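Look over this today:
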Amino acid sequence: MFKLFTVIYKHLSQGKITARLLQFAFVHSQTGVRSLQKLCSTLTLLLCFNFIHTTPAMAANFTGDLLKQPAIEITVSLGNSANELKFEPNHLELLAGKRYQLSLTNPSQLKHYFTAKDFADGIWTQKVEAGNVEIKGAIHELELKPGAKAEWVFIALKSGKYGLRCPIPGHTEAGMTGEIVISN
């Protein structure tokens, strides 16, 4: 019976649990209510353990090794050379489970922020590169000075609609806002 549970856990951890596997487990378990109760209890515990201990990095592994896949490139301009206060484009459509490289540029004479806190909580950041610096970890806001460029590489995890804005006084009110949508 232990070998059976080991096989089931292996399939669970790889995200390959199927009705056929459960039927196989039922048929090959010892007969009797007590054995069936043990099997159900163990499967329930394994399922709970599997979901509780899933991290963003583990979640990424369920869809393949995303870190080896080429990133989908998206370029966003913060303002423009005419110093208009807007994001170009101001609407981004992303898919959960995909790896992206967000290239941010600031061609204006003013500094701007790319602020999307809730969005940042719904992704796993692999890295941010700006100049000769690579930053890793949770990122909630990027400040781009005039002429600056940055690349944000991440995996979209949590679907939803997220607000984007530049919080410099007057910039949001002038229309420097946007929306990022992550869908399944």
User: Anything to note?
Assistant: The first strand starts at residue 72 and ends at 78. Helices lie at 2-13, 19-28, 33-52, 56-62, 117-121.
